[in-house]
Amino acid sequence: MENVFLFTGENEFTLRQELLRWIREFREKHGEENLSRLSAAGLAPSAFLNEVAAAPFIAERRLVVVDGIPSFAAEEGSAGKRKGAKGSLGMQAVLHEVHPQVIVLFVAPKPDRRLATTKELLECATVRTFAPLQGDALLRWMQEEFRQRGTAAGPEVQTLLLSLVGEDQQVLSQEIEKLSLAAGGQPLTRAHIDALVLPSAEQTIWHLLDLLGEGHPGEAVAYCRQLMRRGESAQGIWAIFLWIVTSFAAVTAAVQEGTTSIQGIMEATGVKFGAARSLLPLARTCRREALCDLLNRVTEADIRLKTGVFKSGGDSEEELAALLDRCLLSFPTR
């Protein structure tokens, strides 16, 4: 059906940008009165047909945007025909009554493709899939975003930004806007990134995990100090470190009991794939004495923090930071 469309895909940023463009351009050309937006939740066929079965009002086209994919229940149609029950031919039957001058756009980033209504819509609609940008395509998009804001950013700077905040285009767009304003039309440098960009929580976890898993506790200390200079709290980093230590202890114990595959370790310990993969090489070479020393130091430190022997937060932030340094440096090396 040429007048039924579906926007889907995990790249919700690009999907949303394209949706806003459709709405903006349609409003400019055909007027606000010929634009409707509906929610699929609880949407009945009769309510949907009220919006799509009639010709546009003094215009060439009408646009109806539906957020989600409705599950139409059995109901009489405008011609007295019985619509299919939920999960049968309800979707196809309803869509065949859409007026040819009405454009229907369904927006469902992650539809349940097991449902019959979704399958029927996929058969009837023109589908546009918005996949996440990666690699060179993402770098080209970043370069264009910087250019539109009057700023130049080289590949090294773009790669650094990606390493800190990840590949989510919504987050990147916000960071690019902030950095461009700070650069004031001048080329973006690493100094701008260091001063203004705080790593996402996810990126912080994985980078710290990689440094410790590769046996570089000194670099982990430097990284955590850098995070604190940028505004991250020592308490927040301590919580991440405790999770890493717990995961490392579980992975090492599994290895020492004879489990050596990542899948086996995940099943035996409950540690997630990324953590198991990063920690496994170090766990294979870690001596029991080194693991016990790490656990004793960290457990004692955490107990003292919780009982008030060591202070954290506010004016005591530096005390916790020094404690974190000592515990990081006790992490085993290869």
Automatic annotation (TrEMBL):
* One of the GO biological process terms: DNA-templated DNA replication
Query: Might you give the EC number(s) for this enzyme?
Result: 2.7.7.7
Q: Does the keyword Transferase apply?
A: yes
Q: What catalytic reaction does the record list?
A: DNA(n) + a 2'-deoxyribonucleoside 5'-triphosphate = DNA(n+1) + diphosphate
One GO cellular component term, please give it: DNA polymerase III complex
Which controlled-vocabulary keywords does the entry list?
DNA replication, DNA-directed DNA polymerase, Nucleotidyltransferase, Transferase
Domain DNA polymerase III delta N-terminal per the UniProt entry, residue ranges? 6-127
**What class does this enzyme belong to in the EC scheme?**
transferase
- Which residue intervals define the domain DNA polymerase III delta subunit-like C-terminal in the entry? 202-309
Which superkingdom does the taxonomy of this entry point to? Bacteria
Q: Which InterPro entries match?
A: DNA_pol3_clamp-load_cplx_C (IPR008921), DNA_pol3_delta-like_C (IPR048466), DNA_pol3_delta_N (IPR010372), DNA_polIII_delta (IPR005790), P-loop_NTPase (IPR027417)
Q: What molecular function terms (GO) are annotated for this protein?
A: DNA binding; DNA-directed DNA polymerase activity
Q: Name one Pfam family in it.
A: DNA_pol3_delta_C
What the record says about family reads:
Belongs to the DNA polymerase HolA subunit family.
Q: Which NCBIfam families match?
A: holA
Its protein name is: DNA polymerase III subunit delta
